[in-house]
Design a protein that fits this description.
Layout: H1 4-16, H2 37-49, E1 59-60, H3 74-78, E2 86-88, H4 98-107, E3 112-113, E4 119-120, H5 138-149, E5 158-168, H6 182-185, E6 193-206, E7 230-240, E8 247-254, E9 262-267, E10 272-275, E11 305-317, E12 328-329, E13 335-336, E14 339-352, E15 361-367, E16 373-379, E17 385-390, E18 393-395, E19 427-429, E20 431-436, E21 441-449, H7 458-465
Parallel strand pairs: 2-14
Antiparallel strand pairs: 1-2, 3-4, 5-6, 5-21, 6-7, 7-8, 8-9, 9-10, 11-14, 12-13, 14-15, 15-16, 16-17, 17-20, 18-19, 20-21
């Protein structure tokens, strides 16, 4: 399995490598208790000057982690990154489709930001040229985050089933109910205690920045009053276990970037829909380590934060998974077993601009080619590292991508199978895993069935994303 000649080559390279390539500090779980943002910056500066001492196809074991530590954010190192060997695999070209590139080129140079960081004169595509970004610069931080906000992901993501698994360090999950089904159990190896499992459906509908089909003729937007003034809508529905079944959320983001989101929740115990405040969106979601604002690594409003461009570097990410659904292992059952690609990324640091926020700092790390997020982390109000997010991805153009969309995994709202069309060219959300480095608990959120980026119409979306949907059939 292991390529002996490659490891010998690596050993020889390391012996003659410049000393600065060997200086990267190794971080372990215990380091989280004292880790602060300045420690992240120290790793970041070292990572910028590091050169990879591995090649495509190498398998890196824990004893050789000094080869990959310069390209692994410390938060991931602390979260059992090396509980399983790392397979290095180049992800190839992950750039968005040509119609999105055309829109980017057509409008490049037109968008600007005002003194508040608000984007102006935006039409479609990636708004800002990242080659102009300056390290430590506020304006560059806002521009980078608008690039991230307007990343290409088709009409939006559909997830037929997400597992939300609460895990604790140590112990075993061998006797947990999820292990009784061999088709489920095969994904969850290693140790760690599973204390609770939730299941969720999810649908997002993008109403603007649509460069496909005939949308350029309608201003790159969905031409329907239901989408007027809306950037996107998203629906989340927890349907297991029984004590939360039926709990659902709809969040609406507006094109007016100064207008606060509208969000509603259906609470089965109350049998009513209630509006959610901005503060609730940053609270723990149903007791997990995630929040509504943390979806995708960061799903908040850009103008609710102050941003700074940290810079660009390279990190290892699961950017083109070899699997349809994630596999886990390691001593605590939270180590990802997959291919890891070296990707150039933009790194941005944000501070919330309202004092009641539970985070003091949020770091967002996303791909230079397509602005898809791979990693994020947050610090508590005392400035200590609190949570880290790992965001694995598949690639819609791999020939097996739609194989997981079985007939029985039909989108229940649309009423039909919705495969992702060929040529969509999206790094497809495979899941998101949240590690709390202060209490040792994690929430694994892998996609399990029927995920994709289907073609959508307003009629399809209204079956899911209308407020009236929250109470239907409940």
């Amino acid at each position: 399995m292991y390529r002996i000649h490659s490891l010998i080559t690596l050993a020889l390279v390391v012996l003659v490598a410049p000393s600065h390539l060997m200086a990267a500090k190794a971080y372990n779980y215990e380091d989280g208790a004292s880790f602060v943002y300045e420690d992240f910056l120290e790793w970041f500066k070292e990572s910028q000057s590091a050169e990879p001492q591995f090649v495509d196809g190498d398998v890196i074991e824990a004893k050789d982690r000094h080869l990959t530590d310069p390209f692994v954010p410390p938060g991931l190192q602390m979260a059992d990154m090396y509980g399983e060997p790392l397979t290095i695999k180049d992800a190839g070209d992950l750039s968005p489709p040509q119609h999105f590139k055309d829109a980017t080129e057509k409008f490049m140079g037109q968008p600007t930001i005002d003194a508040n960081g608000a984007i102006e004169n935006y039409k479609a595509g990636t708004p800002f040229d990242r080659s102009t970004f300056i390290e430590g610069d506020r304006a560059s931080g806002f521009k980078a985050m608008w690039n991230y906000n307007f990343r290409y992901h088709g009409y939006g993501l559909y997830l037929h089933k997400n597992d939300w698994i609460w895990t604790e360090r140590g112990g075993s999950h061998d006797n947990h109910e999820i292990m009784k089904n061999p088709e489920t159990a095969k994904y969850y190896g290693g140790g760690g205690k599973f204390s609770r499992v939730l299941h969720l459906r999810y649908q997002r509908m993008n109403c603007m920045n649509l460069t496909m089909a005939d949308h350029p003729s309608t201003g790159y937007a969905m031409a329907h009053k239901w989408c007027d003034d809306v950037e996107w809508r998203e629906f989340s529905d927890f349907w297991h276990p029984f004590d939360i079944a039926g709990t659902a959320f709809i969040v609406m983001r507006y094109r007016d970037i100064y207008k606060a989101d509208d969000a509603w929740a259906y609470i089965p115990s109350l049998r009513r829909v209630r509006r959610i405040s901005a503060e609730v969106k940053s609270d723990s979601l149903l007791g997990t380590e995630d929040t509504l604002e943390d979806f995708y690594g960061f799903n908040g409003r850009v103008l609710e934060w102050e941003w700074e461009y940290v810079g660009r570097t390279k990190i290892l990410a699961i950017a083109r998974s070899r699997y349809a659904w994630p596999y886990f292992g390691g001593p605590n059952g939270i180590t990802a077993i997959d291919d890891w690609a070296l990707r150039e990324v933009d790194v941005v640091m944000g501070k919330p601009n309202w004092t009641g926020h539970p985070y003091s700092i949020k770091i967002v790390v996303f791909d230079a080619d397509n602005n898809i997020p791979w990693y994020s982390e947050s610090y508590d109000r005392a400035g200590k590292l609190w949570k880290v997010w790992r965001i694995p991805s598949t690639w819609t153009e791999d020939p097996w991508y739609n194989d997981g969309l079985k007939a029985e995994e039909t989108n229940p709202f649309i009423g039909a199978k919705q495969p992702t069309p060929e040529g969509m060219r999206v790094n497809s959300f495979q899941g998101i895993d949240v590690f709390n480095l202060q209490n040792g608990r994690s929430t694994l959120i892998p996609s399990r069935e029927g995920s994709g980026y289907p073609m959508m119409t307003v009629n399809h979306a209204k079956r899911v994303l209308d407020i009236n949907r929250l109470t239907q059939g409940r």
